[in-house]
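hey m, so remember when u said the tokens were messed up on ur end? i reran from scratch. heres the input so u can diff it against urs
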Amino acid sequence: RRAQAMEFKHADAPKLGPAGQQRVGPGPAQKAPAQKAPAAEPFVRSGKKIGRNEPCHCGSGKKFKQCHGKLN
């Protein structure tokens, strides 16, 4: 078989110079300082937690795990 000349293009190709060196954009020393993410608020349940073996809240008479708590 004869080898074919292939040319690959990538979305980041214009940013790369010779030998894969990046030629545009800020260097590591020029990056902006990282900002802290806002603290996540914990989830607070408004009512009582329904146990898996308790009767379902819909009134079907089944256990919660066999009705609305059933895993797919």
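this time it looks ok to me. The two ends are 52 Å apart (CA to CA). if urs says something different then somethings off w ur setup not the seq
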